[in-house]
Amino acid sequence: MSTYVLVHGAWHTGRELAPVAALIEAAGHQVFTPTIKGNGAGDAKTVGLAEAIESIADSVLENDLEDVVLAGHSYGGMVITGVADELPDRIRRLVYWNAFVPNSGESLVDMLPPELARLFESMAAERRDGSIVLPFPIWREAFINDADLDTAQRAYRALNPHPIRTLTDKISLKRNPAEMALGKSYLNCTDDTSMPHQYPWHPRLSQKLGLFRLVQVPGSHELCFSNPARLARALMDAGRD
Amino acid sequence: MSTYVLVHGAWHTGRELAPVAALIEAAGHQVFTPTIKGNGAGDAKTVGLAEAIESIADSVLENDLEDVVLAGHSYGGMVITGVADELPDRIRRLVYWNAFVPNSGESLVDMLPPELARLFESMAAERRDGSIVLPFPIWREAFINDADLDTAQRAYRALNPHPIRTLTDKISLKRNPAEMALGKSYLNCTDDTSMPHQYPWHPRLSQKLGLFRLVQVPGSHELCFSNPARLARALMDAGRD
Amino acid sequence: MSTYVLVHGAWHTGRELAPVAALIEAAGHQVFTPTIKGNGAGDAKTVGLAEAIESIADSVLENDLEDVVLAGHSYGGMVITGVADELPDRIRRLVYWNAFVPNSGESLVDMLPPELARLFESMAAERRDGSIVLPFPIWREAFINDADLDTAQRAYRALNPHPIRTLTDKISLKRNPAEMALGKSYLNCTDDTSMPHQYPWHPRLSQKLGLFRLVQVPGSHELCFSNPARLARALMDAGRD
Asked: Is the separation of the CB atoms in B58 and B176 below 8 Å?
């Protein structure tokens, strides 16, 4: 019986994780899927990383959660790292699910391959409202390569423009992840090409955790849509003691 | 309902892909498995790469195929790249199945690790009729490592001597694969050691495609013999929109 | 109908491989699981690598085994390499299961990433009786990441202090593994992080075998505890002709 907080990635909200949460709850756990500030309905797209982190820390405090298994997907890795740095006594284990692992002073964009960093910049320059939108062809081929077209299209319609400052702001930490005295897991979906495999999630970013537990399953970056049951099982394998 | 053209690899003919084709047809698609010139019964072993490509382009034109999912295995990657360069309007998507991805001016041998390139040269020097034959121990251990000995032996008996010029000729393209405005997928069998894993198929060669969809399944280079059903499913996952 | 000799890794004995052996026997094979000298009840912890190898060679000779499929796990790779060098006529195939592959003049520690080599040294310095013990957190997170806590704890209780000299002694071989005229397989559990994945078992160590057969399955370094049935199947796939 654990308490899971699942923190979504860029362009997503907590709502898309509801099917996964339901499966983890069915196994007897308590699950929260808060939406990060900047991705909620009506949120300003000028939100920065510190506010984004604060919104999830607030959610942990407001619900007075303890012994939390705090899982972050992709950009959510920035957020859970910041929350754990701020509230170490409330966290039992961090689970990075194909997620960014920042050291103090790094931004998400610092961990992108150069061509993706440039793409993000040019997307932001085009929209000029502080947000970026992922083009459908990239989504379909590189993010949700394991789903059929229907699932890919349906999932794409659920996305929202993402505040670019949360990706370019440097994180400020008292402790880097390797020094945090918490359980740490890395959940790696082996067909995830949102980071090209010559610039992979694991072990390139996972190794920044120090001692950690690896859990791997087949699947794309968007396993939450393509196979929620497999994802729920993997999150529990990653989150248990 | 799509039209698949499956292009075999070196030493093979289209016939060995019949069981896979039957499974894809059973799912409602149309499937062709032409034999590349140089591998057919009675073909001269002096055939070069341009003629090999031409023979598959001719097969597409003779059958007046459109919207083709054109899949190539191993050496077949050279051939489908050449066909797509010549007939871009007839191709919907290219599927590279543990296949070579050439840029203009490259030969297949240019993409081999040095020790394999030397082995191919020495095999060609021994036979002196323009063809090379794969020794059974290499076939059994490095090409069809996931099958039992019986399957490995039966499959080996189906092979034919391969025209070396198709492997050493440089391809000439108007557009490199990354610039082709087509859907592109890379199907990677994760236990395929026909390319040693320190010199892997993916992402070493797949990254030359630009934006592409990755599909991965367990299995050796010769999944067509060891698990046709898994291969058929993977080709359809790679070939769908 | 083959004869398997399964050689355990550091901190283990042959006893922990009994469930795997039973499954291989049930498939019709003969299986031996000797305990390496230095890991048996009451063995001196000052045993070195040559004595360790000798104890398994003796076991092969005493049982007059021929045509042996000799499989080694982890440190067991040092031992089977030494046995095969000494008794090549009795061995049909070597199976390295996430195992070290030494060339003549190398120790196990020479193949560790620098941080692990330092950890082993400091562990040895602390105990000062010639043996090292693996701390539970490392065992749980990096060795048996695919099991539940109960299995991890139960398995940990079965371990014994390991003689450090068997890890620091250089092996002396007449022939390096690549030159041995034997069948060779590498069984790689893809979630094994006992070697960090930026310093992996495969292909970093497997490529020292020359021509070899790769078999891969999901699972941690300790698949013998987390999934004996999958391990037994994989050992038979690796060990067959």
From this structure: no
DSSP annotation string for B131-169: EE---HHHIIIIISTTS-HHHHHHHHHT---EETHHHHS
The phi, psi pair for B38, rounded to 5°, reads 110, -20
Model confidence pLDDT, tens digit, residues C15-54? 999 999 999 999 999 999 999 999 999 999 999 999 999 9
Q: Is C226 on the interface with A (CB under 8 A)?
A: no
Q: Which amino acid is at A109?
A: V
Contact B213, B97 (CB under 8 A): no
Chosen from A197, A199, A202, A222 to mutate, greatest number of chain B CBs within 10 A: A197
Tell me whether C216 touches chain A (CB under 8 Å): no
Residue A169 contacts residue A107 (beta carbons within 8 Å): yes
pLDDT at A126: 86
Chain length of chain B: 241
Work out the number of other CB atoms within 10 angstroms of the CB of residue C125. Answer: 10
Q: Which residue on chain B is closest to A197 by alpha carbon? A: B203
DSSP chain B: --EEEEE--TT--GGGGHHHHHHHHHTT-EEE-PPPTTSSTT--TT--HHHHHHHHHHHHHHTT--SEEEEEETTHHHHHHHHHHH-GGGEEEEEEES---PPTT--SGGGS-HHHHHHHHHHHHHH-SSEE---HHHIIIIISTTS-HHHHHHHHHT---EETHHHHSPP--SS-GGG--SEEEEEEETT--SS-TTS-STTTTGGGGSS-EEEEES--TTHHHH-HHHHHHHHHHHH--
Q: Which two tokens stand for residue A183?
A: 């359980």
Residue B42's pLDDT band, with cuts at 50, 70 and 90, is very high
DSSP designation for A36: P
The CA–CA distances, whole Å, from C150 to C36, C136, C147 equal: 27, 13, 8
Reference B41, options B160, B165, B129; nearest CA is B160
User: Are A70 and A91 contacting, i.e. CB atoms less than 8 angstroms apart?
Assistant: yes
Distance CA A175, CA A182 (A): 12
Find tokens 């794309």 and name the residue.
Answer: A220
Structure confidence at residue C32 (pLDDT): 98
SS3 C91: strand
Per-residue pLDDT reduced to its tens digit, C25-35: 999 999 999 99
Cα–Cα distance for residue pair A179/A158, rounded to 1 Å = 37
Find out whether C31 and C24 touch, Cβ atoms under 8 Å.
Answer: yes
Query: How far is C85 from C72, CA to CA, in rounded Å?
Result: 14
On the question of a cis peptide bond just before residue C203, with omega within 30 degrees of 0, the verdict is yes
Q: What is the dihedral of CA A197, A201, A203, A208, to 10 degrees?
A: 150
d(CA A65, CA A19): 21
* Substitution target from A119, A139, A141, A192 for chain B, most B beta carbons within 10 A: A141
User: pTM to 2 decimals?
Assistant: 0.98
